[in-house]
Design brief:
This is DNA polymerase III subunit delta. It holds the Pfam family DNA_pol3_delta2. One of its GO terms (cellular component) is DNA polymerase III complex. InterPro entries: DNA_Rep/Repair_Clamp_Loader, P-loop_NTPase. The chain is α/β, with parallel strands linked by helices. It folds into 2 domains: about 160 residues, Rossmann fold (3-Layer(aba) Sandwich), CATH 3.40.50.300; about 100 residues. Helix content is about 55%, strand content about 10%. The chain has 14 helices and 5 strands. A 5-stranded parallel beta sheet has the order 2-3-4-1-5, with helices on both faces. Helix 10 crosses helix 12. The longest helix has 20 residues.
Amino acid sequence: MLGHDEAWREWRGAMASGRMHHGWILAGKQGLGKSAFAMAAARALVAEPGIPQPDLHPDILLLEPLPANDDEAKKKEEGKPYATKRNISIDQVRQIQHRLITRPTLGSRRPIIIDPADDLEKSAVNALLKSLEEPPTGSFFLLVAHRPGRLLPTIRSRCRTLRFPALSDAQVGEVLAREARGADAATRAAAVAAAEGSPGAALGFVEQDLGPLHGLMDRIVSEGDELFALRGELAGEIGARPDRERLLATLDLARAVLAGRLRAASPAQRLRMIDAHGELARLTAQVPTYNYDPGLLAMEIGGLLASAAMPREAA
């Protein structure tokens, strides 16, 4: 994947040194391929000369949020998209720690991937810290972190960080040209703008068909919306029952529209845009937790965009 060259150089250099650190944080925004890197790095770590490596390797342990309920668990078994619980629990960490008491099955190394480490419960973080302080011989922890600043300093201090940079718009466009050939130009342009350097996010935005939303948001920021007509269209385009992914994609797109216009804005308008962007960031953090009415949330998003265009409209 694009953007992984430096991370691979560091990882392979550490493996070749004979002094492999036991804890690693794979840091970067969501959608850069950190999970794929973690699995590929883990497979490189467990490879042993002359020993066949099965697809489902028994020495690679993956800790990730569980399906939200039995129905979602059934979807997972069927290979369908499924909703997950919000956090990785302490029970999951303890199950992994129980495995670490035994020796690896096929070789001398056992990688543990935690994806994402941002979603660990507080009690689970404290339990994990004990393993990082006294790691079992041959155990290596790979913590995928979209927001590494949220990890405890005691966790960060015990790990080496691999950073994954955001891609340029041209690189994200290259990914979309290859992976989303059926999308029209407007949708791809909206996805590139909203992704802010994340090809995974861009592909998710293409699936959400954000082209019409992008056009409406641009109009609101350019023209304002004194009569609320554009906000009504925005609510209709978002839909009466959007899922959480569509709401989050809409909020990300709104923030990207403001960020893209910030440089060319007047000083007064720039301040309004910054205020609106901050409010959109707050809403983005709250949407996964609070049960917002989609129609009211759409009007709030439209109002924040309009406030950046028209000083007399309060957010």
